[in-house]
Amino acid sequence: MAVPQQELLSVKLELWHPECWTTEVMEETGAGVLGHGSVMDGRRAYERCTIYGDSPDHVEKAIQAAKNSSRIRQVQEVQSSPAASLSPESAIGTHTQDVFIEYRFTEGIGPAFFSRGFVLDGASQMEDGREVWPLLVQMDRSALGRQIEAIEAEYEADITIERVTPAEQGRSRPAFRARLDELTPRQRQAYELARENGYYEWPRDTSVQELADTLDVSKTTFLEHLRLAENQLLNPPETKESSK
Q1: Distance between CA atoms of 123 and 51, rounded to whole angstroms?
Q2: Mind listing the pLDDT tens digit for each residue in 109-143?
Q3: What's the mean per-residue pLDDT of the chain?
Q4: Does the pTM exceed 0.70?
Q5: Exposed/middle/buried for residue 42 (C-beta within 10 Å: 0-12, 13-18, 19+)
Q6: For site-directed labelling of 223, which of 46, 62, 70, 94 has its Cα 20 to 30 A away?
């Protein structure tokens, strides 16, 4: 009987789980959270996160909601380096704050992945009650399915595997598709709605106001999301190679 072959896999998951501090923050304030990976020490987990929103006050309210959560033992605001923090242009909001968080490892789903050999490939993103996790893991695909099922059962989670590719293949995705995957959920929703409704046709089949009405948001809000998406898709940050 052939032994399943392990390979380095690039995995993208969409998930939801109950009793999570990030869900509390999102539901209470509407802010978004990026997770940069956690480490465990006994029954404690430690993680640096980026909280982002539409204004300094919005971000401060989200931080206070995290501090008030019974699921978090400690929240400390920290200064981040430009290379490590979230670029405002890649978020819905233009204001961010990095925090260092300590919590019981059972209060977050991250340790369930990291203790099983998964590694964050970028940052996990939590927004509008939706979490997206880009991960790397060395295992065969049948074992991957079993591990996901085990995490679902342990945390009463709902996990969807959106994509599984060999890691090297994932790196060779077309540039536009890779940038599309980096959009926040609201940015992608605004862009895809505009594209599907002929906003980029000439003459245009729809207006910004009509698209905003479809999503029940203001014209200004919709246009902000759309322009940030367009900026990310059409003007990606220069790489070291291209800037030389």
Answers
A1: 12
A2: 888 898 899 998 888 888 777 888 999 999 988 89
A3: 81
A4: no
A5: exposed
A6: 62
DSSP the chain: -PPPPPEEEEEEEEEE-SS-HHHHHHHHH--EEEEEEEEEETTEEEEEEEEEESSHHHHHHHHHHHHH-TTEEEEEEE---TTTSPPGGGSSSSEEEEEEEEEEGGG-SHHHHHTTT-EESS-EEEETTEEEEEEEEEE-HHHHHHHHHHHHHHHT-EEEEEEEEEHHHHHTS-HHHHHHHTS-HHHHHHHHHHHHTTTTSSS-SS-HHHHHHHHTS-HHHHHHHHHHHHHHHHSPPPPHHHH-
